[in-house]
Design a protein that fits this description.
Blueprint (H helix, E strand, L loop, with lengths): L2 H25 L15 E3 L4 H14 L1 H7 L4 H4 L4 E3 L27 E2 L3 E7 L5 E6 L4 E6 L5 H4 E6 L10 E5 L6 E3 L14 E3 L4 H6 L5 E4 L3 E4 L4 E2 L1 E3 L5 E3 L19 E6 L1 H30 L8 E7 L4 H17 L3 E7 L5 H9 L3 E4 L9 H4 L11 E5 L7 H14 L5 E5 L12 E5 L6 H7 L8 H14 L3 E5 L9 E2 L25 H4 L21
Parallel strand pairs: 1-2, 17-18, 17-20, 18-19, 21-23, 23-24
Antiparallel strand pairs: 3-11, 4-7, 4-16, 5-6, 7-8, 9-10, 11-12, 12-13, 14-15, 20-22, 21-22
């Protein structure tokens, strides 16, 4: 053989070897090294009986002998490869194979590798990369919705070991940075209906009580799981519940404590005390700056032109829940500061406490009673009837669980002075969740702008349904006023007609018109941190280019 032929032959052999290697990698199922070693939930394919499932596997083996062997199906849940099992095999512990027999649920066993020390810790969910905190919803329960921009002291927890040298098996108590109470997990009561079972709450601040109550004891496992001692359940993020934290399994059977499953995976970040204190001081500084700006606008409001119009701020109030009754009274007080010359009017049901009604009257409010046969939550609709009152020249409609403020007033004033003659309806959108045509408590108008509003409300049959007021506004009111409304809009100004930027810069605290408050006058922080904190608004929605956040 000549030398060139020899060289060509060697090249051909090398090419064949390389092609063979590539084919092996293409055909052979890959095991990703990036997959966590932690147990992930299996995909459950429901089957009628275990026998039918076994027959299916047997037939598959016969038809796919080679791939079945190389793919290690029998290791399934343990190796994260083809986790396909019959419902009959699933018993909740996530550790079984096709050859296993059904076994009973096994209680969680605390790890002997844990983090136990004094100091602070931030806990991030590996499911959505959000931080755990106690400001999810109105009830101040734990959820995984805090962001990287959330002030550190609101998403950090103080670690308080049960014993000075962590001799109690590593168990610690957790306390949120802006509250005194220690966290605990609610133990479900068998057979009882509980709205808060498995929930993590803030409880006592007493060291002795919390030390003697296992509901307050938590274990920070080094592998990235947080175990509650009272329930022997891991904290678990539930995505379909807006990332609320619960102690039950994320599986179909939610009567079981959560195990070391996907939703329970977290990352612990130890925080220096100085960082937490810096965050607290930073927030105090921002609050002071916001308060100083508020004072300046209050003085400006005092100098606004007076009017002979009858102007009304219309609210709906029903029931005795403090969040709403406190808000009603607070808004009647705030109206004197931010809307002098305006009258608060409350459309109320018969079960509003008489003491609340008396307070409102003392503050100069008008009270309109809602007939008992008009539906329990019809106050959401009846507040719209101010638009049908011919004694009222101008009105705005607001929610009792929000708070009147200078940003609201200055937007309303701009409408009155600059746009009212052309646009008799005024709308506000000041949050990313306000991006619908109209929000129930964020619009207003002048007398005669909606001449058939009373008949329209009475004709709407589903006044007690969830979000019925929004559906009514979208389907009945909006088509009538679309071309004769003007809106101050912070986020969706390019989506709707006749929008204007807010005339004032958003406060440093990210408060917004329509912000929801609790019974203690605290803003619902989830509305801020989960949506708008640190998020620039569209440039086209800014009055000034450097008003980045509105």
């Amino acid at each position: 053989m000549k030398l060139p032929d020899l060289e060509n032959g060697i090249l051909i052999v090398l090419l064949i070897v390389l092609i063979a290697i590539n084919l092996v990698y293409i055909v052979k199922p890959l095991r990703s090294k990036a997959i966590s070693s932690r147990k992930l939930p299996s995909i459950i394919i429901p089957d009628d009986t275990t026998e039918e499932f076994d027959r299916f596997i047997s037939e598959f083996k016969e038809a796919n002998v080679a791939t079945y062997t190389s793919n290690s199906w029998s290791s399934g849940a343990n190796q994260h490869v083809d986790d396909i099992f019959s419902v009959a095999y699933e018993k909740g512990n996530g550790k079984f194979s096709l050859n296993d027999q059904p076994e009973e649920y096994k209680p969680n066993v605390p790890s002997d590798k844990y983090i136990c020390q004094s100091g602070w810790v931030a806990i991030r969910s590996e499911m959505n990369y959000k931080y755990l905190w106690m400001h999810t919803g109105d009830s101040m329960w734990m959820g995984a919705t805090a962001t990287i921009d959330t002030p550190l002291h609101r998403k950090a927890f103080e670690l308080v070991p049960l014993s000075e040298n962590c001799t109690e098996g590593g168990w610690v108590r957790l306390r949120e940075g802006d509250r005194k109470g220690f966290l605990y997990m609610v133990i479900p009561t068998p057979g009882a209906v509980q709205t808060d079972e498995w929930v993590v709450k803030s409880g006592t601040d007493d060291l002795t009580i919390s030390a003697n109550d296992t509901r307050y004891h938590f274990l920070l496992e080094e592998d990235g799981f947080l175990l509650n001692r009272g329930n022997m359940a891991f904290i678990n993020v539930i995505p379909e519940a807006e990332y609320a934290v619960r102690g039950h399994s994320g599986d179909w059977d939610r009567s079981k404590p959560a195990m070391r499953e996907y939703g329970a995976m977290v990352h612990f970040q130890i925080i220096s005390d100085s960082f937490v204190q810096d965050a607290i001081e930073k927030e105090k500084k921002e609050q002071k700056e916001a308060d100083d700006e508020d004072k300046l606008y209050i003085e400006k409001i005092k100098s606004l032109p007076s009017s002979h119009e009858k102007r009304v701020i219309s609210f709906g109030l029903y029931g005795a829940k403090e969040k709403y009754t406190t808000g009603a009274v607070r808004n009647a007080e705030l109206a004197k500061t931010y809307f002098p010359g305006w009258v608060c009017r409350y459309y109320v049901t018969g079960d509003v406490p008489s003491g609340v009604i008396s307070q409102l009257k003392l503050l100069g409010a008008e009270i309109e009673s809602i007939p008992a046969d008009m539906g329990y939550s019809s106050g959401m609709f009846w507040r719209f009837l101010v638009a049908a009152d011919n004694t009222v020249d101008r009105y705005i409609i607001r929610d009792v669980d929000s708070r009147l403020n200078y940003r609201d007033r200055m937007a309303v004033e701009e409408w009155i002075q600059d746009y009212s003659s052309k646009y008799p309806i005024h709308i506000l959108r000041d949050h990313i969740n306000h991006c619908i045509v109209m929000n129930g408590g964020m619009w207003g108008g002048v007398k005669g702008a909606l001449p058939t509003i009373k008949e329209d409300v009475m004709a709407w049959s589903s006044r007690d349904e969830y979000m019925a007021d929004l559906h009514f506004l979208e389907n009945v009111v909006w088509p009538k006023i679309k071309e004769k409304q003007v809106a101050h809009d912070s986020y969706c100004c390019d989506r709707y007609p006749n929008t204007k930027p807010f005339p004032t810069r958003r406060p440093y605290t990210y408060q917004h018109v329509g912000q929801v408050f609790d019974s203690e006058d605290n803003p619902r922080l989830m509305d801020i941190d989960s949506y708008i904190r640190g998020v620039p608004i569209p440039q086209s929605c800014r009055k000034e280019n450097d008003w980045i956040f509105g």
